[in-house]
Design goal:
- It is built from three helices and no strands.
- It is mostly helical and 93 residues long.
- Helix 1 packs antiparallel against helix 2.
- The N and C termini lie far apart (46 Å).
Length: 93
């Protein structure tokens, strides 16, 4: 059995949940011109899930690389994403 199978199932489930939130947010954006609290909640959750999945999958990619520059760039990119995402959340609230 593939040792990554349980991890893949978790990532697939999270990805499904993320696209569901994004789809719901887009529906609310169209129906209510994106001004409702429900839209903001689903959009924020969908964005967070998308960022987390992208960070996790990129981490697996970098883990397979031997040159340390990949790790350094990965850390820089993740820090930038996290900091700017948190700043964006603070701005929304």
């Amino acid at each position: 059995m593939n040792e990554k199978a349980p991890l893949n199932k978790v990532l697939e489930c999270c990805a499904f949940f993320g696209i569901a939130c994004i789809a719901i947010a887009l529906i609310f954006a169209v129906c209510f011109q994106g001004t409702t609290i429900i839209y903001n909640i689903f959009k924020t959750i969908g964005d967070a899930v998308a960022y987390i999945l992208a960070i996790a999958l990129a981490g697996f990619y970098v883990k397979g690389k031997t040159h340390k520059a990949w790790l350094v760039l990965y850390i820089i990119f993740v820090v930038v994403i996290v900091v700017f995402y948190i700043l964006g959340l603070v701005k929304i609230v």
